[in-house]
Specification:
The protein is 21% helix and 30% strand. It is of the alpha+beta class and 234 residues long. The radius of gyration is 34 Å and the shape is rod-shaped.
Length: 234
């Protein structure tokens, strides 16, 4: 007898013949069973939500960097003896530099800053920065000011620069408007309103939303003749 004949015939059996059920039912509950979301997607969603909150609570500069328009910056420094050079927000602080005319050896520079729209204000002394080139007719001062932990949402930060030398006081108040720091959502709303109302020939915005002023190219235009440069506007 061959080996093939010794093998038994194949048989097919079902689960119910052995006492098992032919079907299995699984009930899912949206409350009891957590939705299995990959970790990287969950982390991405949390980051997006967190980023939205941070951007909403953050502050932005409501003015262009003065030194970006060099012609206007030079003219203002020559006429007013003091001008904010640059400013930026770093973490919870305002940092930047100020240029002043070197009228005498003894001089002081300070920022007058308000956190409640000039109900109160605080003066912060700026620090002298040693110039690499001796004999310059300009001096540089720097500032690094920590912002309060909590600022009312309806308030804005404003500051002006004060330069004192030989008993005289000179101000840079951004042409009477002061340098303003506002919440980011207010800046976005302002830019949207500008686009709806059409262009302003005094101030235009580039494709990145940065203001560009024509007075630096045409300083003889009378658009700025009415402001008071002798002190901060409040």
């Amino acid at each position: 007898m061959s080996c093939r004949e010794k093998k038994g015939k194949k048989r097919v059996s079902f689960a119910d013949h052995k006492g098992f059920s032919l079907t299995m039912v699984k009930v899912f509950s949206e409350f009891d069973d957590p939705f299995d979301v990959p970790f990287n997607i969950t982390e991405l969603i949390e980051n997006i939500v967190g980023l939205t909150t941070v951007e909403k609570d953050s502050f932005v500069l409501d003015f262009a960097q003065p030194s970006a328009d060099y012609l206007d910056f030079r003219n203002r420094l020559q006429a007013d003896y003091v001008c904010l050079e640059n400013c930026m927000l770093k973490d919870k602080a305002i940092v930047g530099t100020v240029k002043v005319k070197n009228l005498a050896f003894h001089k002081s520079v300070k920022l007058r800053l308000t956190f409640d729209t000039w109900k109160t204000f605080v003066d912060y002394d700026c620090q002298y920065v040693k110039d690499t080139y001796a004999g310059s007719d300009r001096d540089t001062f720097s500032f690094d000011i920590n912002l309060p932990e909590r600022i009312q949402s309806h308030e804005r930060l404003e500051f002006a620069v004060c330069f004192e030398c030989e008993g005289k006081t000179y101000w840079d108040s951004n042409k009477g408007q002061n340098y303003r720091i506002i919440r980011s959502e207010l800046r976005t709303a302002h830019e949207g309103e500008h686009l709806r109302n059409g262009p302003d020939f005094g101030i235009t915005f580039d494709q990145y939303g940065s203001p560009r002023c024509s007075h630096g190219i045409f300083p003889e235009w009378p658009s700025y003749s009415g402001y008071d440069k002798r002190g901060p506007y409040y």
